[in-house]
């Protein structure tokens, strides 16, 4: 383990691997109280507590291509473990209070609110955290649960439930909220740095964005130092600087003059919706997509550019009716009607 990870792990206090004594403690009162809080039977939680070493079989691991290069490893929990992680996310992690600059996986915040802070800025500085989820180790997760007022026994058990191979698994429903909490102190430090220099800062998962006047570029060494002190590292090859006369993009949206969908993405979505309206087979990156995903694309356009989406809807709806097909089967008709 490198020096950076060791410094971050010390913040997690005293998480230790399970032993026989911990397994025998499955009948302790805290486990009963936790089962009532999560609305999961004590028998199921006790069984998970006693079979900790076999949990690897509850994960399905696969890879998905990244937008730019390489592949992302997804570790998706299955069955009972998935149900328990969802309960932890909905019941325990809802107590997490986050900085206003955190926009990823937060209710009533989105890529749109993340981009809004950086509209019409002279310089845009974008950075990515390297190996975001896998950098958040079990010790740090233990520290998160301790900070939420959990006893050491509960925090250890919740940590085991929410980690895989010693870190946060990308693909678990509980991982985003835990990651946000683990970044809370870093977010506050970076926000104060930006505010002091009259700049704006926001974070969406592993994407860090700063914007302001030209002096914002001088903050780069300080930003890297703070990120390193918090136990993370910047993916150097993904650091981007864009001035006002260049295309400025924040979480996939252009922000030069106003928030807009990038033209290539807009053309791709329009083609997907056009094929759907004409009842042709629809794919995205050679992967077939269904009606719910098609409606999702349309809703995305409507949220970012409502006027463009309304015009597109009318164009496609007319084309659909020209094919003499029942409007009730048109995904755009249903989506438009449900939003009224």
What's the arrangement of secondary structure elements?
Elements: H1 3-9, H2 20-24, H3 29-38, H4 42-50, E1 59-65, E2 71-77, H5 79-92, H6 111-116, E3 123-128, H7 132-135, H8 138-147, H9 152-162, H10 175-182, H11 184-196, E4 200-204, E5 207-212, H12 220-229, E6 240-243, E7 249-250, E8 253-254, E9 260-261, H13 263-277, E10 283-284, E11 287-288, H14 291-304, H15 306-322, H16 331-338
Antiparallel strand pairs: 1-2, 3-5, 3-6, 4-5, 7-8, 8-9, 10-11
Helix pairs in contact: 8-9, 8-10, 11-12, 13-14, 13-15, 14-15
Describe the structure.
This protein has 340 residues and is an alpha+beta fold. It has helices at 3-9, 20-24, 29-38, 42-50, 79-92, 111-116, 132-135, 138-147, 152-162, 175-182, 184-196, 220-229, 263-277, 291-304, 306-322, 331-338, and strands at 59-65, 71-77, 123-128, 200-204, 207-212, 240-243, 249-250, 253-254, 260-261, 283-284, 287-288. It has a four-stranded antiparallel β-sheet. Strands 7-8-9 form a three-stranded antiparallel β-sheet. It has a two-stranded antiparallel ribbon with strand order 1-2. Strand 7 and strand 8 (253-254) form a beta hairpin. Helix 13 (263-277) crosses helix 14 (291-304). Residues 1-27, 322-328 and 333-340 have low confidence and may be disordered.
């Amino acid at each position: 383990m490198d020096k950076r990870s060791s410094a971050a792990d010390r913040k997690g206090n005293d998480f230790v691997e399970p032993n026989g004594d911990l397994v025998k403690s499955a009948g302790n009162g805290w486990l009963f109280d936790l089962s009532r809080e999560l609305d999961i039977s004590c028998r199921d939680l006790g069984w998970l507590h006693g079979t900790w070493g076999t949990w690897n079989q509850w994960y399905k691991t696969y890879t998905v291509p990244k937008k730019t290069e390489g592949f992302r490893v997804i570790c998706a929990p299955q069955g009972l473990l998935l149900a328990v992680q969802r309960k932890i996310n909905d019941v325990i992690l809802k107590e997490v209070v986050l900085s206003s600059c955190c926009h990823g996986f937060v209710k009533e915040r989105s890529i749109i609110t993340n981009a809004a802070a950086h509209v019409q800025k002279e310089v845009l500085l974008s950075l990515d955290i390297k190996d975001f989820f896998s950098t958040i180790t079990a010790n740090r997760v233990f520290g998160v649960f301790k900070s939420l007022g959990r006893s050491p026994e509960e925090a250890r058990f919740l940590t085991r439930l929410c980690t895989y191979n010693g870190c946060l698994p990308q693909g678990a429903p509980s991982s985003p909220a835990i990651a946000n909490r683990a970044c809370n102190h870093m977010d506050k430090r970076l926000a104060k740095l930006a505010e002091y220099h009259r700049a704006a800062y926001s974070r969406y998962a592993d994407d860090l964005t700063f914007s302001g006047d030209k002096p914002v570029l001088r903050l780069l060494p300080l930003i890297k130092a703070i990120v390193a002190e918090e136990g993370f590292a910047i993916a150097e090859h993904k650091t981007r600087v864009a001035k006002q006369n260049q295309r400025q993009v924040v979480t996939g949206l252009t922000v030069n003059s106003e928030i807009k969908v990038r033209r290539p993405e807009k053309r791709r979505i329009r083609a997907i919706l056009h094929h759907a309206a004409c009842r042709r087979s629809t794919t995205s990156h050679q992967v077939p997509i269904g009606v719910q995903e098609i409606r999702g694309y349309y809703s995305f356009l409507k949220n970012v550019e409502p006027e463009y989406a309304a015009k597109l809807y009318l164009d496609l709806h007319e084309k659909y009716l020209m094919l003499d097909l029942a409007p009730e089967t048109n995904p755009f008709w249903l989506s438009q009607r449900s939003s009224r």
